[in-house]
Design a protein that fits this description.
The protein has a 4-stranded mixed β-sheet, with helices on both faces. With 279 residues, it is of the alpha+beta class. The protein has 8 helices and 14 strands. The protein has 4 domains: 45 residues, no CATH class; 45 residues, no CATH class; 54 residues, no CATH class; 105 residues, Endonuclease, Chain A, CATH 3.40.960.10. It is elongated.
């Protein structure tokens, strides 16, 4: 059905099509051109005249940008620079909650520490809603100061800054001591706790062959391991796999001897080192 109507833009009479889902009130314009012209006039009716806060020049903005304060990007950058300098001059002084040092920060920031080091030293990690704090400790072996978790300080009597200092203070483990005695009895020269890339290997024989001693519990022995699902054991197993891949990639000879073989005085895997000794 068609109904005669007057265009709201040009006042021209036209025949509007009417459907049950499209009532006659919705038809307002005779053509697409009149519709676009009406929309353009509607959008410009809300234009505002404002004064630039930097250069004082008058400019117009539509109603969607009524919060604009400057007439151009250059004036906007100048206003931002002036605001930054003003904020910098209004910095406040605060006292670090860890070391007591005075520092300056922005008024809007809730600064509690003077540096990231103090922040990590005071509250180092959050796990399951619990706060793990750390304390400044002194290594009993080398005298170096380091931060250690309070939970570890309560659990262990001594804390060390590294594995090297721990081994130097407490000495090698029982299986490592047995391997060292076997190498000494066969006249094999070796070094203990040698660095290989990111890894620490138990022995370096004659400067070319590495020997790693694996405990049955910590290294996840498939015959004598009691808690293979433990996170610490799984991490150690993954570390051993990465070490093996590293040695294969760089053609580095590596021999692994397990704790149960050492307890049974079975050093067959180390007999390949005997021809390397000088005669």
């Amino acid at each position: 059905m068609k109904v005669e109507k007057a265009c709201e833009q040009c006042s021209k009479t036209y025949m509007a099509r009417v459907f049950p889902s499209y009532p006659v009130e919705r038809s307002k314009y005779c053509s697409r051109e009149c519709q676009l012209a009406a929309y353009a006039e509607k959008n410009t009716k809300g234009d505002l005249v404002k004064v630039c806060e930097v250069c004082g020049k008058e400019f117009t903005v539509d109603r969607d940008h009524r919060r604009t304060r400057t007439c151009s990007k250059e004036c906007g950058d100048a206003l931002k620079t002036a605001w930054t300098k003003e904020q910098a001059s209004s910095k406040v002084e605060k006292v670090c909650e860890k070391c007591g040092k005075t520092f300056t920060t922005w008024p809007s920031r809730k600064g509690r520490y003077c540096s990231r080091k103090c922040s990590r030293a005071d509250v180092t990690r959050r796990r399951t809603g619990r706060i793990f704090t750390s304390e400044l400790m002194t290594c009993p072996t080398c005298g170096k100061e380091f931060h250690e978790y309070s939970s570890r300080i309560k659990k262990y009597f001594n804390s060390f800054c590294s594995r090297e200092c721990y081994l130097a203070h407490n000495g090698p483990s029982g299986p490592e001591d047995e391997v060292a005695k076997w190498l000494t009895s066969h006249g094999i020269q070796f070094e203990s706790q040698v660095r290989l890339g990111r890894y620490t290997i138990d022995f370096l024989v004659n400067g070319i062959h590495y020997v790693e001693v694996n405990g049955c519990y910590w290294h996840g022995c498939i015959f004598h391991g009691t808690d293979l699902s433990s996170i610490r054991v799984q991490r150690r197993i993954a570390r051993d796999e990465r070490l093996t891949e590293y040695c294969l990639k760089h053609n580095i000879p590596l021999t692994v001897i397990w704790e149960h073989d050492i307890n049974e005085h079975n050093f067959v895997v180390l007999e390949s080192l005997l021809p390397l000794t000088p005669f």
